[in-house]
Amino acid sequence: MKIKTIIKRTMLAAVLPLAALLASCEDDNYMRFDLSNSGIYFTKDTLNYSFSVTPVEVKTHTYNIPVQVMGSVSSEKRPIGYYIDADSTFAEKGVHFTIGKACVMPDSIVGYIPVTIYRDKLEGTYATGYTQYKLCIRLAPNDCFTPTLDSLHQVRVFRFDNSVNQPEWYNAHGEKVWQKKYLGEWHPLKFIKMVEYFHAVKDIQPETYKAMVKLYGENLEHIEFGDPYQYRTVFIKYIYTPMYNYFNDPANRDYILSEFPDFPFDFPNPLDV
Q1: Domain around 186
Q2: 31-59: per-residue pLDDT in tens?
C-alpha cells in the first residue's frame, strides 16, 4: 500500500505542472503576436561606408540598411514606412544619394532600405580633407508596419564619404610608415591599385591569398613595418609589377590625371629595387 501511495503521489506531482502549463496556454492573458499589426525596428547600430580603396572606376554603391519585423510573415511584399530627418541630414537627395524601394520581401521578417551613393559628387581630397556626409532616416507607420521597441530602434544615421587614408602601418618606434622603396611617395591612388591587385591574387593563388589576408587583413590594414616581407616575392610579382606597368602605361596617363591631377608618377621599377 505504501508503494502504491508513493507512485500515485509521484504521478500527481508530474501531472500538475503540465496541467498548469496547458491552462496557462489557454489563458486570455497569454502573450500572442498581433497578426494584424506587425512591428518594425532597425537592428544594425553602425552604418558607415567609404569608397576608400574600391577601384576608381566604381562610381556608385548601394548600401542596404536592414530592418527587422516583429510579428508574422506575409506572402506579400510589404513596403517600409520611413522619412528623412532633414535637420539631422548633411547630404542632398538626388545629388549625393538616392533611395530605392524599401520593403520586406514575401515570407521574410527582414527588410532593407536601399541607399545608393554617388562617388563623383562626394567632395574632398586627401590633401584638403574629406567631407563626411550623413543621412538620418526615421521609421514611420504605414498600413503594414508600426515602429516598435524604444525610440533608439526607430532612427539610424548612415555616414558616408570618399576618403582614402594612408594605412595604419607602423615601424618599431610607433611611427606611421609608407614603403617608398617599393611604392614611391604616398598617394591614395597607389593604395587603391595596391589593394586591387592584392585582391586579384585570390584567383591566381587562392591558398596564398587566404594566408596573406589572415596576416595582413582583407584590405592590407595590418602590414607590420609596412613591409610584407613574408610574401615579398608574391608582392613583387603580382602586385608591385602590375602597379608599375599600370602607372607607366601612356594609355593610362590622361585618365589618371583627370581623376588625380597631383599624381606624382614616381612608382619604382620593382625589379630594380
Answers
A1: 180-259
A2: 344 445 699 999 998 899 999 999 989 99
